[in-house]
Write a structure and sequence with these properties.
Layout (H helix, E strand, L loop, with lengths): L1 H67 L2 H20 L2 H6 L1 H20 L2 E4 L12 E8 L8 E6 L1 E4 L2 E4 L1 E7 L4
Parallel strand pairs: 2-6
Antiparallel strand pairs: 1-4, 3-6, 4-5
Helix pairs in contact: 2-4
Length: 182
Amino acid sequence: MSDKKDEFAEDQAHVDETFADIMAEEADEIEQLRAERDDFRDRFMRALADAENARKRADKERQEASNYGGSRLARDMLPVFDALQRALEAVTEEQRAQAGPVLEGIELTQRELINVFARHGITSIVPQIGDRFDPQQHEAMFEAPLPGTKAGDIIQVMEHGFMIHDRLLRPAKVGVSSTPKS
C-alpha cells in the first residue's frame, strides 16, 4: 500500500504542479489582458478628448466666420459711408433749400447703410472734440498745440471709426492736441 500512497502522492504533486503552472499562465494572461484593457481605455479617453476639442474648435471657427466673415466687404463699404457723410457735411443752407429731396435721398441712403451695418454687428466710433485720444480706437492724423486743451485731447475728427462686434474694423481718424506752448 505504501507504493500506492507514494504513487498517489507523486500524482498529486504532479497535478498540483501542473495546476500551479496553469494558474501562473492564467494569471499572466489576465495581467496582459488588464494592461491591454487599460491601454484601450487610455486611447479611447484621448480620442474622446480630441473629438471634443475638435468640436469646440469648429464651433469657435464657425462663430468667428459668422461674426467676422464680412469684414472685407464691410471695410470696402466704409468709403461709401464716408462719401455720403462728406456730401451731407458740404451742403450749405441755400443748397439744402434748393435740393431738399435729393439731400433727403442721400440721408435716407446713409441711414439705410448704417442699418445694414448694425444688422451685421458693425458700430460707428464717433469721438467728440475734447475726448481723450485712445490708440485702441483712434488714429492720430496730426498733432498740434491748441490753447485751452490738454495734451492728448481730440481737437478734430476727420473720419468716423468702426467696430465689427468686438474688433476694430477701422480707427477713427482724429487730430490730437500736443502740449500747448506757453
